[in-house]
Amino acid sequence: MKVSINWGGDARFDGTTGTGHTYTMDGPEDHGGKNQGARPMEMVLLGLGGCSSFDVMSILKKTRQDVVDCRTEIEAERADAVPAVFTKIHLHFVVSGRNLKEAHVKRAVSLSAEQYCSASIMLEKGGVEISHSYELVEVE
Questions:
Q1: InterPro entries attached here (predicted)?
Q2: Which of 30, 32, 38, 93 would be 11's cystine partner, CB 3.0–4.6 Å?
Q3: Residue 107, Cβ neighbours under 10 Å: how many?
């Protein structure tokens, strides 16, 4: 897996993935940026959320759950000192669907956290406290 990062001036950087997708990262105005993109640490959280959400949805599809939406809300805390690493991250999955079985959703979240999500497992091994929760929303 490869990515490249190109400086776009000031505190802006454009990251390009090996699959050809480009994402802009920028700093806040008080740090020389123009707020034209996500902060790099926000991108880490997006990667974590994408990895875990992909796992959860894949597992739920295999169990034939009628999911119509899955939203993952992530909150993180960072150390006060430099480097301002993540110390705690909480992922909350909101799974909407018809006749969803709570046991299947609970299992999907657990399997992602404990076995499949490389990003989550890597961050935990680095000392980040990661927690998970979920809620089911029944739709008509």
A1: KH_dom-like_a/b, OsmC/Ohr_fam, OsmC/Ohrsf
A2: 32
A3: 15
The answer to whether the beta carbons of residues 23 and 14 sit under 8 Å apart is yes
Q: What predicted TM-score, i.e. pTM, was given to this entire model? A: 0.92
% of the chain residues with pLDDT over 90:
99
* Residue 35 to residue 57: CA distance in whole angstroms: 32
- Integer CA distances (angstroms), 51 to 34, 79, 138, in order: 29, 24, 24
pLDDT digit string, tens, across residues 9-21: 999 999 999 999 9
Residue 96 has what pLDDT? 98
- CA–chain centroid gap for 72, Å, is 8
**Dist. CA 39–CA 64, nearest whole Å:** 37
Classify 110 as helix, strand or coil.
helix
Q: How far apart are CA 97 and CA 63, in angstroms?
A: 13
**Integer-rounded Cα radius of gyration of the chain:** 17
Encoded tokens for 86: 């993540």
Is beta strand 13-17 parallel, antiparallel or unpaired with respect to 22-25? antiparallel
Which one-letter amino acid corresponds to residue 112? S
Specify the pLDDT at position 64.
97
